[in-house]
Amino acid sequence: MKSIKKVCCIGAGYVGGPTMIVIAAKCPQLDINVVDINEERIAAWNNSDLDKLPIYEPGLKEVLKKCRNRNLFFSNRVKENISSADMIFISVNTPTKTKGIGAGQASDLKWIEASAREIGKYGKGETIVVEKSTLPVKTAETIKSILLSFTKPKELKNGDDKSFYVLSNPEFLAEGSAIDDLENPDRVLIGGDNKGAISALKEIYLNWVSEDKIITTDLWSSELSKLIANAFLAQRVSSINSISALCESTNANINEVSRAIGMDTRIGKEFLKAGPGFGGSCFKKDILNLIYICNHYGINEVASYWEKVIEINNWQQKRITKIILEKLYGTVSGKKITIFGFSFKANTNDTRESPAIKICKDLLEEGSFLSIFDPKVNPSQIAIDLGIQQINEKNFKNNESGWSFSESLEDSVNNSDAIVILSDWDEFCDINYDNLINKMRKPSWIFDTRNIVNKNDANKSGFNIWSLGNGSLI
Ligand code: UDX
Ligand code: ADP
Question: 68 in helix, strand or coil?
C-alpha cells in the first residue's frame, strides 16, 4: 500500500468538520480537502470571521486557525478531490428514513450511496475508503459492492486501474467536547479486512494516539460496536430519567441517587445526569437502527427491549410539559414562558432531536407565548424546528400561540410567568435571581430540568422551584 499524502473528506458537518480539523492539526504532512455539496456550509467554513463558522464547538476555531489554508482546505470541488485522494473519509448525513420500507427506523443511506458512486467514478489508483458516519451494520458491504462495480475484474487489471479498500472507523466524539474527544480519545476503532489499509489509517492516528488505544477488528464488529456504544449510553440516560420520576414521587433526590450508585466502579459515574431526555443526531437514530436490525433477523424480544429506551425518552419530555401545566394552575394559555436553552445540550448549536423541540411545541399547542434564549442557536433554525416563524410579542393574541427569540437572558424573562431550563450552559448555572424575578409576573416559577439552579438563592429571591427528580421540593 502506498503512503498516504492526500486525504479527502466527503461531508463538512458536525463529524467531518471537527475530525478533519484535528487530523490536519496533528498531521501537518497530510494534505486534507473537506468537500461538501452544500455551498453555504463551505463558505461558512472559509469565513474569515471565526465566530461565523457553521458549527460551534469549544476550542474548534483555535485549532482551525492553525491549519486552514495550510494543509486543510474546504471546497465544493468533490470530483477533483476524490480523484487526487489516497484516502477518502465518508462523513455524510444518515438520517432516519421518513418514508418507504423501514420508515421511522432504518437509516436513509441515499447520501452514502451517492458518495460511494462518486468515489467509484472519480477515484484513481489505490484508494482507501473510510466510513465515518454512524451507519447500520453491513453498510460497508453496500459501499464495497458499489465500488466493486467500478473496478475491473482481477484478470483484466493492467497496473493503472482503480482499486478500493473499505474500512470502518466510527467516530465517538460527543458534541460540545468534540475537540477534546478527538485529541484524547478513549479508543480509536478500525475495522477492515485489508491489513495494509488498516495500517495506513492506524499510522495517521499514531501521530497523536498511543498504540494501546487503537483497536483493530473486522468490519462488521466495528460497525456494530458504534451502534451498541450509543445504545448503551442512551439506555443509561433513560434509566436515570425513569428513576427521576420515582424520586419525585418518593421524596428522594435524583442527584443523591446518581452519586451513590455512580461510586460503584462497576456502574461508574458518567452518564447518570437526569434531564429532559436525550437528543442529538445519534442516540435515537442508532437505537432505531438496532431495533430495525433485530426485527429484520427475527429477534423481536431484543427489539422490544430497546424500544423501551426510546419510549421512556419520549415520556420524559411529555411529563415535563404536564408538570409545567399543573404547576401553572392547569393552563398556560395566554401566559409567557421563557425557555433557557434550545440546543440538545450545552456547548453546541445543534438542535437535532433536541428535547426543547417537543417541549416547546407542546407548550405552544397549549396556547402559551414562548420567549426563547439560547447562547448559540440561530433563531432561523428554531423557526424550522418549531415549524412557525417568530412574531413580535405585541402581536400575540390570546388563544393562539407564538414565540420570539431573545438576544439576552435578562430581556428574555420580561413579564414571564416561568423560566424553563432545558440545557446546562454555564451561564444558566450562575444566575442573578433577584435581577430576574423583578422583571417577571408573580408567582414566578423556575422549572429546572437539569438540576443546576441554586435553590437557596432562587428561593430567597422569591421563586417557586420545580427541580427534576427532586422529591423534597415537590
Ligand atoms: C453521542 C455519543 O456520546 C458519542 O460518542 C457519539 O459519537 C455521538 O452520540 P452526542 O449526541 O454529541 O454524542 O452527546 P452526548 O454527550 O452523548 O449527549 C447525548 C444526549 O444525552 C444529550 O441530550 C444529553 O443532554 C443527554 N445526557 C447525557 C443526559 O441527559 N444525561 C447524561 O448524563 C448524559
Ligand atoms: P453529521 O452530524 O453526521 O456530520 P451533518 O448533517 O452535520 O451530519 O453533515 C453531513 C454533511 O454531508 C452535510 O453538510 C451534507 O451537505 C453533506 N453531504 C451529504 N451528501 C453529500 C455528497 N454526496 N457529497 C458531498 N457532501 C454531502
Answer: strand
Q: Pick the catalytic residue from 8, 9, 247, 282.
A: 282
Q: Tell me the H-state helices in 209-270.
A: 219-250, 254-262
Whether the model pTM is above 0.85: yes
The three cell numbers locating residue 70: 495550510
Helix-, strand-, coil-residue percentages of the chain, each rounded to 5: 45, 15, 40
Q: Ligand nearest 36 Cα, by number?
A: 2
Whose CA is closest to atom 21 on ligand 1?
A: 278
Each residue of 251-296: pLDDT tens digit? 899 999 999 999 999 999 999 999 999 999 999 999 999 999 999 9
On whether the CB atoms of residues 437 and 418 are closer than 8 A, the answer is no
Distance of CA 205 from the midpoint of ligand 2 (Å): 23
Provide the pLDDT for residue 195.
96
Asked if residue 160 has pLDDT above 90, the reply is: no
* Ligand 2 neighbours by CB, cut-off 6 Å: 10-16, 35-38, 41, 78, 91-93, 111, 114-115, 133, 281
C-alpha cell at 409: 437572558
From 184, 387, 338, 359, select the one nearest 279 (Cα to Cα).
Answer: 359
Q: Tens digits of per-residue pLDDT, 7-46?
A: 999 999 999 999 999 999 999 999 999 999 999 999 999 9
Pairing of strands 72-75, 418-421: unpaired
Confidence of residue 141 (pLDDT cuts 50, 70, 90): confident
Q: What is the pLDDT of residue 158?
A: 65
For ligand 2, atom 3, which residue shows the shortest CA distance? 93
pLDDT of residue 2: 78
**C-alpha distance from residue 146 to each of 114, 119, 141, 163, 402 (Å):** 10, 9, 9, 12, 48
> Ligand 1 pocket by C-beta < 6 Å: which residues?
171-175, 230, 233, 237, 271-273, 275, 278-280, 282-283, 344-345
pLDDT at 94 over 90: no
Measure the CA–CA gap between 463 and 442, rounded to whole angstroms. Answer: 9
Q: How far is the CA of 120 from the centre of ligand 2 (A)?
A: 18
Q: Is 153 helix (H, G, I), strand (E, B) or coil?
A: coil
Please give the torsion angle defined by the CA atoms of residues 244, 246, 248 and 249, in that order, rounded to the nearest 10 degrees: 170
Residue nearest atom 13 in ligand 1 by C-alpha distance = 174
Residues 142/164, Cβ–Cβ less than 8 Å:
no
In the residue annotation, 247 being an active-site residue is answered as: no
Question: Is the pLDDT at 474 greater than 60, yes or no?
Answer: no
Dihedral angle of Cα 440, 446, 449, 453, to the nearest 10 degrees: 110
pLDDT grade for 98, boundaries at 50, 70 and 90: confident
